[in-house]
């Protein structure tokens, strides 16, 4: 479990196949940047660009994760070198400064706007249609692992456009600073919305 409060921006420096068949995943080496690894152990979970990954190797200032083909097909930004948002899994007693984030990416959205407005930034993302029902005004949304608040939702034929206001600090300390129109982003909806949808539309499940 994570909070969506990015602890550091690291960098994928190497991606190598785990096999020779198309279905094979990859192993990625990630430079941890400012993420402390002194208490990290093999098997620990770290969110990488919003996707929960298991540490399979540790190095000085770096770690490695295995990424399945399923994960590669359902996410973006994990299949090549580049900067990534990093967050350790929560520990009991940690402050929940964002919202509950599982690290299970629900889909890939696309940026439709990223521009400065006064001291802040106007970020708009088209979220796939099958996730539209989970978006709400002032609800929570994780974009590339960053916990954000939705200021407006506009339903469209291809999905729902989520309007988000980014403060300068968030832009400065995450990979969101690299976003531009057309950029793909990892999306995770609020897990509480999923439970509510299940309870309200349980169809056939005994009360």
Characterization of this structure:
The chain is built from three helices and twelve strands, in the order βββββαββββββαβα. By secondary structure, the protein is mostly beta strands. The chain folds into two domains: 8-88, Elongation Factor Tu (Ef-tu), domain 3 (Beta Barrel), CATH 2.40.30.20; 107-199, Elongation Factor Tu (Ef-tu), domain 3 (Beta Barrel). It has a six-stranded antiparallel barrel with strand order 1-2-5-4-3-6. It has a six-stranded antiparallel barrel with strand order 7-8-11-10-9-12.
Fraction in beta strands? 35-45%
Distance between the termini: 28 Å
Number of helices: 3
Which architecture of the largest domain does the CATH hierarchy give at level 2?
Beta Barrel
Number of strands: 12
**Overall SS class:** mainly beta
Order of helices and strands: EEEEEHEEEEEEHEH
CATH fold group of the largest domain: Elongation Factor Tu (Ef-tu), domain 3
> How many independent structural domains?
2
Any idea what the shape is?
globular
Question: Taking all residues together, what is the mean pLDDT?
Answer: 93
Tell me the major beta sheet: 6 strands, antiparallel, barrel
Radius of gyration, CA atoms, in whole angstroms: 17 Å
Low-confidence stretches: none
Helix content: 10-25%
